[in-house]
């Protein structure tokens, strides 16, 4: 039987039994009738409290469901004067203020005084909470004066400030409208130049642009695949080359030993032959002497003497015969040795020919083995990727030819690929190390790497560890991290101590990890030592007042000695750390106790002013850590701790803008002198552009385009045409048109040292954060494509931070800029009005 019928009969027991036996979904319990739209609870509200109790016991019942007239069950219960049902509905969450299509509330249908009183009580018990005043508004009310005259004066000040603010807003709006018209005109010219005449042509160009973007992404995928293949080939070739070199070395060593033995035997034979020749020569000489003595002897000698001489001669002849025989034997041996030597030389030539053939065969074999190794490594990686992709832990984009490009992955899978020796992707390694804090803390990353190393090395001997690809990969990863991203450890002493303890524990002795130990030691030493000031710094251009107090010749050597790091053997004695605002830690050359010199903008050469401003801004730019750009840290409530260096540079840029504005509007004597100050600022901007300080150029243009300076039409009319052309060039350089197209091209073509405009890259990161989410659909996979795009910008910024400017700091000029007394916006605008009042 349907629920509605049981409720209409008022049979609460049957209804309870029916609901207990048949589980009902939300739609069935709250089903409305086709005639009046009433639900079972509407019917029960005007008939039976017990049925109401049974229905309200169901978790999916809707207490405030409405019928065709917008009335709730509470409306019907009040109309039926069912006080018990009214109370029960309100206890279940019924809305006592619900209004139907006639604009009536439940209390408007209450006929019973008890029901009416109860509803009135409930409505009074739940009043609408009054709007609370903010703490700031309460403080303002407390500070307001009580006297009428003071209030009147305050109101007058507010009205004056309002009029000034309104005038400035109108000026700014007019300026923006002019810029908009100029931009629209340029846009129309660009469209005409590009051949865009109508909407269809524009859509066609957009379609072509999308097509080229797709093609570019496909080519990027292909390039990434080829780079990976090349890295795998190089890795396999290096291993095989090392193996064959070792074998060739052993063969060459054996061959050399054989040749040395042959040469030694030949030398011994020649030495014996020379000894025999010497002895034979001595015997021949003795025989000749004896013959002379015999021939010159007296004839009176007895026959016995002649017989003795004859026997002596016979003995000598026999000895000579023996020696000749020995000599013939030695000559035969020498000839034999010479033949053997010739044979050895022939064997050597044959061996060399065989070596050449062997090298060719080894090259072919190495190529085949490289292909085989690459296939095996690629197959293993492919198999693992397919398993991860099927399990939903990783996601790839596939281009033409089946090339894969990582799109996203779970954090643990991204770390696994980072430590996988078969993944030879330098760009991937850079991306993860730069952007890992978007999905894992730096401490967690280091702990994961150390845990992986200990897990793999636990059951391996020293020899096996040297041959383990994954251990070598982890060592090279840590070495790369130290060499290229040392700031992660320098800014966190606890993290640095963890890394140092791991290195000492795992690589204290032995060949393994020697490069890692050296890299860590070098960074620790460099951290406490100062960089030597460049020796090629140009000579500063000083104002006359400062030049008199400087001893350029004697001071230069002492200044250099103050900034030079002392090296004694291998021991580095660190000097005192520089002040954050003093780029090279140089001390003032001005003698202490000398009187203060008051300087003005026109006293400085624009080039030297640009040099000092560039030195100060480069130190601020260099101090920015890459992690400060991640997750738009400079825009969060915690920006003071997460992006302190970005904020320092932003505040400094605001300081420079206000300094330039104050310099110009403070010149109130004549239009000509104010025009001279304007021209000097333009020359300063030009010098900054030549120094490739694009942030400084942006500051100069921003200052000259503020409302306080932009409105000075008479001043601009007095400026020379040459300076106005330079000013227009600077404006075009830093223009935000086409996403800073001109500035991007200039930065791309420039060589470091340079200072980019950080806002350009911050805008790119904001765009990326807006268009791409940190995680892919589903919320479990990290969007690696976004990390890769962010890392590209960060790597570019880090490259610019590595090369310092070879310039000599002048503390007095830097202090002039830093300590200049600024006017705020209102004061500057009022000063501008004093310079050139509004036309009546």
Automatic annotation (TrEMBL):
Keywords: ANK repeat, Guanine-nucleotide releasing factor
UniProt key word Cytoplasm: no
Domain of life where this protein originates: Eukaryota
ANK repeat residue intervals: 36-68, 69-101
Record-level GO cellular component terms: plasma membrane
CDD domains, A to Z: RasGEF, REM
SMART domains, per database record: ANK, RasGEF, RasGEFN
GO molecular function: guanyl-nucleotide exchange factor activity
Domain N-terminal Ras-GEF positions: 402-528
Keyword match Oxidoreductase: no
GO biological process: Ras protein signal transduction
Coiled-coil blocks: none
Annotated Ras-GEF domain residues: 605-838
Protein's name in the database: Ras-GEF domain-containing protein
Source organism: Powellomyces hirtus
């Amino acid at each position: 039987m349907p629920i509605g019928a049981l409720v209409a009969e008022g049979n609460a027991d049957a209804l309870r039994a029916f609901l207990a036996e048949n589980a009902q979904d939300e739609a069935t319990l709250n089903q409305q009738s086709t005639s009046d739209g009433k639900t079972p609870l509407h019917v029960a509200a005007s008939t039976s409290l017990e049925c109401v109790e049974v229905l309200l016991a169901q978790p999916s019942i809707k207490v405030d469901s409405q019928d065709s007239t917008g009335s709730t069950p509470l409306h019907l219960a009040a109309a039926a004067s069912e006080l018990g049902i009214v109370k029960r509905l309100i206890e279940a969450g019924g809305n006592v203020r619900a209004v139907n299509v006639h604009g009536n509330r439940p209390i408007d249908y209450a006929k019973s005084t008890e029901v009416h009183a109860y509803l009135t009580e409930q409505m009074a018990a739940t009043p609408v909470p009054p709007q609370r005043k903010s703490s700031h508004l309460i403080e303002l009310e407390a500070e307001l004066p009580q006297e009428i005259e003071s209030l009147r004066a305050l109101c007058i000040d507010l009205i004056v400030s309002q009029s000034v603010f309104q005038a400035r807003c109108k000026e700014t709006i007019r300026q923006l409208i002019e810029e908009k018209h100029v931009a629209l005109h340029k846009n129309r010219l660009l469209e005409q130049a590009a051949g865009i005449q109508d909407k269809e042509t524009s859509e066609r160009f957009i379609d072509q642009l999308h097509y080229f973007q797709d093609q570019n992404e496909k080519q990027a995928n292909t390039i990434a695949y080829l780079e990976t293949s090349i890295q795998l080939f190089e890795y396999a070739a290096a291993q095989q080359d090392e193996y064959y070199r070792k074998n060739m070395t052993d063969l060459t060593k054996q061959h050399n030993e054989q040749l040395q033995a042959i040469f030694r035997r030949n030398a011994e034979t020649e030495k014996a032959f020379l000894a025999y020749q010497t002895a034979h020569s001595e015997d021949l000489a003795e025989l000749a002497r004896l013959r002379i003595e015999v021939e010159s002897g007296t004839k009176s000698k007895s026959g016995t003497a002649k017989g003795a001489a004859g026997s002596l001669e016979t003995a000598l002849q026999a000895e000579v015969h023996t020696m000749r025989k020995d000599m013939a034997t030695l000559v035969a041996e020498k000839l034999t040795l010479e033949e053997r030597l010739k044979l050895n030389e022939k064997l050597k030539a044959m061996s060399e020919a065989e070596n050449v053939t062997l090298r060719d065969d080894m090259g072919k074999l190495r190529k085949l083995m490289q292909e085989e190794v690459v296939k095996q490594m690629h197959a293993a990686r492919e198999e693992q990727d397919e398993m991860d992709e099927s399990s939903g832990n990783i996601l790839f984009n596939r281009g033409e030819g089946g090339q894969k490009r990582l799109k996203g992955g779970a954090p643990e899978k991204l770390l696994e690929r980072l430590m996988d020796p078969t993944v030879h992707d330098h760009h991937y390694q850079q991306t993860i190390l730069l952007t890992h804090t978007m999905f894992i803390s730096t401490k967690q990353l280091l702990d994961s790497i150390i845990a992986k190393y200990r897990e793999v090395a636990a059951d391996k001997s020293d020899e096996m560890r040297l041959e383990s690809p994954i251990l070598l990969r982890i060592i090279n990863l840590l070495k790369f991290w130290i060499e290229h991203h040392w700031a992660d450890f320098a800014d966190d002493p606890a993290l640095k101590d963890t890394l140092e303890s791991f290195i000492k524990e795992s690589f204290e002795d032995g060949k393994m990890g020697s490069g890692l130990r050296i890299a860590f030691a070098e960074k620790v030493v460099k951290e406490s030592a100062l960089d030597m000031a460049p020796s090629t710094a140009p000579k500063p251009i000083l104002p006359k007042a400062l030049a008199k107090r400087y001893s350029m010749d004697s001071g230069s050597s002492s200044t250099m000695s103050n900034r030079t790091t002392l090296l004694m053997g291998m021991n580095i004695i660190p000097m005192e750390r520089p002040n954050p605002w003093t780029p090279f830690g140089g001390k003032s050359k001005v003698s202490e106790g000398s009187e203060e010199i008051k300087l003005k903008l026109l006293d400085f050469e624009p080039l030297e002013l640009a040099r000092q401003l560039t030195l100060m801004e480069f130190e601020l730019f260099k101090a920015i850590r890459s992690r400060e750009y991640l997750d738009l840290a400079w825009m969060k409530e915690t920006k003071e701790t997460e992006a302190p260096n970005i904020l320092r540079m932003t505040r400094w840029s605001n300081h420079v803008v206000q300094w330039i504005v104050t310099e110009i509007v403070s010149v109130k004597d004549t239009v000509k002198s104010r025009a001279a100050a304007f021209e000097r600022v333009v020359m300063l901007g030009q010098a900054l552009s030549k120094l490739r300080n694009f942030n400084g150029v942006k500051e100069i243009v921003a200052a000259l385009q503020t409302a306080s300076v932009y409105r000075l039409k008479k001043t601009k009319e007095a400026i020379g045409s040459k300076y106005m052309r330079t000013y227009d060039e600077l404006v075009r350089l830093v223009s935000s048109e086409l996403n800073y197209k001109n500035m991007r091209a200039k930065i791309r073509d420039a060589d470091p040292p340079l200072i980019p405009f950080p806002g350009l890259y911050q805008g790119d990161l904001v765009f990326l954060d807006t268009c791409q989410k940190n995680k892919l659909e589903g919320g479990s996979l990290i969007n690696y494509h976004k990390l890769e795009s962010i890392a590209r910008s960060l790597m570019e910024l880090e490259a610019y931070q590595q090369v310092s400017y070879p310039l000599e700091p002048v503390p007095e000029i830097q202090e002039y800029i830093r300590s200049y007394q600024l006017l705020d916006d209102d004061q500057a605008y009022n000063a501008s009005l004093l310079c050139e009042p509004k036309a009546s």
